[in-house]
Specification:
It is extended, with a radius of gyration of 24 Å. The chain has nine helices and three strands; from the N terminus they run αβααβαβααααα. By secondary structure, it is of the alpha+beta class. The N and C termini lie far apart (about 70 Å). It has a three-stranded antiparallel sheet, with helices on one face. It is about 55% helix and about 15% strand.
């Protein structure tokens, strides 16, 4: 026998469910964790990471790898604001950094520093000439991955060229 509920009854049931299981208040944060001394309270670190959305097993694995000396990228699904993450983990002797692509890259300055035309720059680093032209004229910005590559080209152009020409 099926249970047919009125709209009001369904809404009341839904409200009760939402009240018991509130949505997480934090937001997604990508961080890189490094050990900054010895971990005095590994259980507290695990509990903190679990509170920020990692499963207990995953949090335990993170702490194990940190103690082994690895720098570890971690995605925290329910993280508080960045200042709170830093201050909380600093007290537990874990250094935190927040990786992100550069907000803006001056493509023309990079190209000019290498002494290349737009066509030569595009050919050397496997870009479309129209893309290089559009980035320089600010018709549209490079996507985040391209901005990262352009920053690497700015600092290590020969290395990028070597990677691109490996048979």
């Amino acid at each position: 026998m099926s249970e047919r509920l009125s709209f009001r009854e369904r809404l009341e049931r839904r409200e009760n469910t939402v009240a018991r299981n509130p949505a997480p208040s934090g937001s997604l944060a990508n961080v890189v964790l490094r050990l900054d001394g010895e971990v005095d309270k590994p259980v507290t670190v695990i509990q903190t990471l679990a509170h920020w959305g990692l499963g207990l097993r995953q949090a335990h694995g993170v702490v194990t790898r940190l103690v082994a000396g690895q720098a570890l990228p971690v995605r925290l699904p329910n993280a508080p604001d960045p200042k709170e993450i830093v201050s909380c983990l600093k007290g537990l002797r874990i250094a935190v950094s927040f990786p992100h692509p550069p907000a803006r890259v001056d493509v023309k300055a990079i190209r000019n520093s290498l002494g290349l035309t737009q066509g030569e720059f595009a050919a050397r680093f496997c870009f479309e000439v129209n893309s290089v032209r559009n980035w320089e004229q600010e018709r549209y910005p490079p996507d985040p991955s391209t901005r990262i590559l352009l920053k690497i080209i700015e600092h290590y152009p020969d290395t990028v060229e070597n990677v691109l020409t490996v048979p």
